[in-house]
Design goal:
alpha+beta; 16% strand; 3 strands; Arc Repressor Mutant, subunit A; 46% helix; 93 residues; elongated; single chain; three-stranded antiparallel β-sheet; 3 helices
């Protein structure tokens, strides 16, 4: 995390995807896809297929839209990783 050691880190916040505009959600997903280099199997998926796959993961709750107030950024995290990050920040407080 990118916060000053003298500051108390704030907990990341899950954002309901339904509260975002379609344009904002697609932008977050596209940014994630470009950064992630995720393995989509032996055949590379199209950009549209990747977006569809991530949207499905969000709708099933496997992936969360997360705002990190410490870095003032939004990203996607698996629900498991999100819970781990909550525990990590809570332990450091």
């Amino acid at each position: 995390m990118n916060y000053n050691e003298n500051e108390t880190p704030e907990l990341p916040i899950a954002i309901e995807a339904s509260k975002l505009s379609e344009e904002a959600l697609i932008g977050i997903i596209e940014n994630y896809i470009m950064r992630s280099g995720t393995d989509y199997g032996s055949v590379e998926a199209t950009h549209e297929a990747k977006i569809s796959q991530v949207k499905k993961q969000i709708s099933t709750g496997e992936v969360q839209v997360v705002y990190d107030p410490n870095t003032e950024s939004v990203t996607l995290m698996t629900t498991k990783d999100f819970k781990l990050s909550l525990n990590e920040v809570s332990r450091s407080q």
